[in-house]
Structure formats: C-alpha cells, structure tokens
C-alpha cells in the first residue's frame, strides 16, 4: 500500500487502524534506503530506537497530541538531541545538550524526528551543492540543482520520506528548494518562531521554515511550533501578533506584481510564460492585479550578500573560520569573509535605508494587498553552477533575498511544470504577521489556478 504522507491522510489511516506509528516509521526508513543517491541525509536516528519512540506514541490516545505519530526531518543547522549538529562542516560538529525549543515543541506534540538533513555549508547558498556530504539535485531531474540552503529538508519531503521538515530561511533557503522540488515552503514572519538552538547565519534575519506537501499542513505545523506564552532571545517583542490559523478569504484582494521591465528571468523564457499564465488566470478569476515598482525590493535584497548584512554572517562564524579556514568550502569562505570590509557606518546606513523602504512599501502592500512573484527566476544545472557559483547563486535570490530585510511573511507554492518536467512555483508575500492570510491565498492559487 502506498502511504500518502499528508497530515489528513495519515490521520485517516491511523483512525481506521490501517497502520500504526511503528508501521509508518518503518516505511519511512525503507523509503530513505531506496533513495540514498541524492545526499539528502547527514545523520539518521537509530531505527530500533525510533520505532520504540513510535510505540510509545501509539500507547497514547490519538487525540492527546496534535502531531500524534507524524514523522519529520530537521535541517542540520538546528539542534536535535542525540544527533550531532554539523551545519555541513564536519570540523564544526558538536553534540547539543538538548534539542532546539522548536524541535522540542514538535516532539512534545507527538511528532517523531527521523534525522538531520543536508544543506549548503553554514546555510550559505541557495543551490544545494556546497556540502562535503554530497550534492543535492532536484527530485524531478538530477541534472538540475535542488535549491538550498535547506536542500535535504526539501528533498526529504519531496521524496515522501517524511511528512514535513524544518529548515531555515534567511534569504530564500526555505522557498527556493521548495519551488525546485514541487512542494510548499512556508517562511513565517521572522521572530515569530524561535531560532534558539540554531547555528546562526544572520541572527537578525534568520527564521525557521517549514516544508510540507500542502499549505494546510505547513500552516498547522507552524501553529503547533508557535509558543504564545514563552519568549526567548530569538523571538521579537510583538510575537503574540502571530496567527497561524486558517483564514477564510472574504474580501477582495489585490495582487501586486513587478513592472514588466523589472521581471527578470535571465533568459528563461518558458518560466516567464508560466508566470504570465498564472497572472492571466488570476485576472480571469476576478483577482485585481496591479504593478508595483520592484526596485526597492531589489535594493533591499542586495543588502543581504552585497551589503552590510554579510558582516553579521561573518561575525557569527568569525572564531571558527579564523581558526579552521581550510575546513570551510572555498566559495563559502569567500562569501563569509567578504563581511570584513563593512564598517559600522555602513551597517547603520543600511538599517536606516531598509526602514525607509519598509515605510514606503507599507503604502504599496497594505491590508488585503499582496505581492506575487516567481519563486525562482530560472532553472540552473549543477554543471552550470559549478562554473559560476557566486554569480548564479546571486541570481537565484532575485525574488527572495529581500523578504526578511523588509520584514515580510512569505510562502512558496507549487503551481505547474516546465516541459522538461522541472517544477515551477510562485511566492506570495505579505506584511509581517500576515502569515495566515498569505498561506490561505497560496492555497487558493493552488486549488484554482494550477497550470
């Protein structure tokens, strides 16, 4: 029997007694063994111990825990008790004393962690090729990159090895691999979910991301992961504004899109046509679409890797890279070390400018107004990325880098396919704490407009 790993399907199978959590965990391990070629996993929990954990869960009433018997994976820059955290750098590896709070919360809700997944080293990259544990390629065509940095997390879900996965998203790491593997990638408002127990990338911008097979699943996982009564240093002061309940769209919404001369596809004419087809279908279904000047978004996005925010990435890893530079990928080291050149004046000027842009964009993306862009501008082969790793990686972030700098919520949704079988996705952006609305709009687009 082929087991569907959405929450709804698993709960139905459990309620009818067709499978048990032990059966499911055993099935997950079998699926992992069958797809071992794609460097998805860095470490996996002991099978017998994990099945024993499933047995403990199965002894509890099914309605006692919201994620009763649900298997998931965790990106290997997030602490999981009993497994090393490597951030895809063996020399950096350490054994955490306890799991990150977000992992604990999911496990306390009945979810069962299978293991830790591969990533671009130190979460520095959007492609999935920068790891000593192997290169990740798309689940749909192994000539093309999987996207990153949460490459293994996306692939573990796309290959139906787990129900959902925790990744991270600083500049697109939770959205781009989702789009390139035909799954949902949900980036909640930064600071609404804890990043304590994460290897820091840019702590002021880092946030967890959720990969799932449906928008409903991603939203529910975020709701369980959200803790409205406990605050740690990684959570913003106004975190209680967060809302991950399903939102019923009743009022007319306005979709904002980049002006035509600002829609960059880097020669990917088929992707351009797919995006235009999405907009056409939205309009024919009564959605009001208007253009927006996309240059402020691009300006904010450039601050992430071509601006002072690289200094924060450098500061997060300065002690390690100064001591062990030969243990860091050459491209990763080059990017991180570029943070040395930025001064305090540069940082404060960038923060001021980012605040100015946010203020102006609040007039453009207001109540019931949302930005919809392609998630990824073009498809990139592994062979191409190896020849031009920094420039092509930067182009991958054209529609993603700006989100956290501008304090936006976002979700990438699968919407169609290229002729070569690769997936195509779009991202819906909204203001901070518009997570439930953004997700619900994404769900409507999937339901009504798949191409």
Topology:
Blueprint: H1 7-15, H2 21-34, E1 41-44, H3 47-58, E2 71-75, H4 101-108, E3 112-117, H5 151-158, E4 164-168, H6 176-179, E5 184-187, E6 208-212, H7 215-225, E7 254-258, H8 269-284, E8 288-292, H9 295-305, H10 309-323, H11 330-337, H12 344-364, E9 369-374, H13 382-387, H14 389-396, E10 408-417, E11 423-431, H15 435-449
Parallel strand pairs: 2-3, 2-4, 7-8, 7-9
Antiparallel strand pairs: 1-3, 4-6, 5-6, 5-10, 9-11, 10-11
Helix pairs in contact: 2-3, 9-12, 10-11
Question: Mind explaining what this structure looks like?
Answer:
The chain is an alpha/beta fold and 451 residues long. It has two domains: 7-241, Amidase signature (AS) domain (Amidase signature (AS) enzymes, Alpha-Beta Complex); 254-449, Alpha-Beta Complex (Amidase signature (AS) enzymes), CATH 3.90.1300. Helix content is 37%, strand content 14%. The chain is globular and about 55 Å long. The relative contact order is 0.13. The mean pLDDT is 95.
If you consult CATH, what is the topology of the largest domain? Amidase signature (AS) enzymes
What is the strand tally? 11
Mean pLDDT: 95
End-to-end Cα distance: 29 Å
Secondary structural class: alpha/beta
| Succession of helices and strands | HHEHEHEHEHEEHEHEHHHHEHHEEH
Structural descriptors:
451 residues, alpha/beta, Amidase signature (AS) enzymes, eleven-stranded mixed β-sheet, 15 helices
Can you give me a brief rundown of this structure?
The protein is of the alpha/beta class and 451 residues long. It has helices spanning 7-15, 21-34, 47-58, 101-108, 151-158, 176-179, 215-225, 269-284, 295-305, 309-323, 330-337, 344-364, 382-387, 389-396, 435-449; strands at residues 41-44, 71-75, 112-117, 164-168, 184-187, 208-212, 254-258, 288-292, 369-374, 408-417, 423-431.
